[in-house]
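Standup notes
- DV: blocked on the single-chain target, sequence here:
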Amino acid sequence: MAIKRTNSESLFSKAKNYFPGGVNSPVRAFKSVDGSPLFIKKGDGCMIWDEDDNQFIDFCCSWGPLILGHNHPNVYNKVVETLQNGSSFGAPTRLENELAELILQRNPFIDKIRFVSSGTEAVMSALRLARGYTEKDKVIKFDGCYHGHSDSLLVNAGSGLVTLGESSSAGVPASFAHETLVLPLNDIEALKACVEAYKDQIACAIIEPIPANNGLLLQEKTFLLALREICTENNILLFFDEVISGFRVAFAGAAEYYGIEPDLVTYGKIIGGGLPVGAYGAKKEIMARVSPDGNVYQAGTLSGNPVAMAAGIAQLTECAKPGFYEDQAQRTIDFIAPINAHAKDKGYDFEIVSIGSIFWLNFAGNKTIRKAQEINPDMTGFRHLHSALLERGIYLGPSGYEVGFVSLAHTPEILQKAAIMMCEALDAIYQ
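- DV (later): unblocked, structure below
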């Protein structure tokens, strides 16, 4: 039985008069799945409710930042306490120091950090820093990794091993994109060929060490280690974009998980408890080039916003507790194991892939997918499953390329219930 959408449909109809496509971010338009987008009015724990009072177990978690779940009492109380003193000053506050100290004391890969207002802004700023520090212009990017919508990184790959990026959005000049060298993931030979051809021009190699914006493209550690070695040998900065993986698979992100040290790193809204925030960091000699100390300019009126800092302090204090990430990973494994066993027993061409508390619905059976071009672009299976899950009370992001997330609020009992619902939904679409 289809869920009630009357109020959401009415709101969406009005929204189309106000916003392009009726939304403020494209994936929200539900174009990849069935029906109109759901307008969410409330979240608590691992649950969300839409404007038609449908209740869902939420595995989107605001696309990852809500690692404690919605409305966690510690985060809520810290935000309310901070708001008593005002919401924004455009001046330094004690809270910025507290959050920076909390992060830096537990992260051996960076000495200094700069707070900004989004993951895109963090990547854009760190990329400028890489170019300013090295005095080189070109950037290696890997096909299938998303780094926000700044112009020089909004590119895709052409043909061949070493290609100049091509704009993947109108409004991005070709000259911007051509400073970006696009390579396939998990291909050491392509990487070596690129560096050989352009090594004196490359400022940095940027990668999601756990690519999670275009499927969950888990890389072989040997590839990441080779990337580190090649960058070191050729004076190229290794740039880990940890907007998704940072504080999600380990406190210090994929760098800690794999034991690989990047030269530059970026983080996203998880460091602000879901509020608008991002950050970039590096060793002190690199960060010394950032203004006002150095000549690489970057600024932001809402950078270090006290409410976001307060939420981040509350959230990351929980994440820093012993065993937090081990528990997150184990509950995720326990959640997906019976679903995968059910799919295998039934002969369904389906498997959930996971790392830490991140998971992805893979409709290629048990085939290991490490490159973007290996994903089947036919998302019919996901579209049908998404609808079947909504009908049963499970909310996932409305795109088969996106990943899901388990939060602290997803108890073993709720995850067991969700696994049963997932198996029922698979039966509904495959039989």
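- Follow-up: The domain at 73-319 is CATH 3.40.640.10 (Aspartate Aminotransferase; domain 2).
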